[in-house]
């Protein structure tokens, strides 16, 4: 493994840990040349489905694009990097568990919107406005109203639950 700082080839593993779910290996490494430390993650590589765009063209799934979309919607919002990583992991797990070789970009967009709704309502509205191509302010109002209704239903469920 090359050092990300000095690009030297000789790095050694200092510590290895398995994630709680047991599907990721975390390794702390130290560069023998510059003595800096860094972390690497080892995951099982499974074939992600091909994304079928609205125009019918096909493209490979790219985690980098998913992260960029989420980060754009979450720009200047109080959401931790760990929460974003968790959302990406849940989306990718759903893609893999679908067992499909191809998935429509619309389905992927819905998965992203569901995760953004969990993470941050403002980011959800930002993403939805672009994803659903809002044409006027009434569409924003409808999306906000939808979130307000869901929040009220969620609060009512919590109030009705016995302690």
Explain what you see.
This protein is an alpha+beta fold and 163 residues long. The protein is 48% helix and 19% strand. It is built from five helices and six strands. It has helices spanning 63-73, 81-97, 105-119, 121-131, 137-160; strands at 11-18, 24-31, 37-43, 50-52, 58-59, 102-104. It has a three-stranded antiparallel β-sheet, with no helix packed on it. Strands 5-4-6 form a three-stranded mixed β-sheet. A hairpin with a 5-residue loop joins strand 2 and strand 3 (37-43). Helix 1 crosses helix 4. The radius of gyration is 20 Å and the shape is elongated. The mean pLDDT is 86.
Secondary structure layout:
Layout: E1 11-18, E2 24-31, E3 37-43, E4 50-52, E5 58-59, H1 63-73, H2 81-97, E6 102-104, H3 105-119, H4 121-131, H5 137-160
Parallel strand pairs: 4-6
Antiparallel strand pairs: 1-2, 2-3, 4-5
User: Which geometry do the CA atoms define?
Assistant: elongated
N to C succession of SSEs: EEEEEHHEHHH
Name the helicity range: 40-55%
Give the integer mean of the pLDDT values. 86
Task: Look at the helices and sheets and give the structural class.
Answer: alpha+beta
Largest sheet, in brief, is: 3 strands, antiparallel
End-to-end C-alpha gap: 52 Å
Structural Rg: 20 Å
Low-confidence stretches: none
Number of strands: 6
Strand order of the largest sheet: 1-2-3
Number of helices: 5
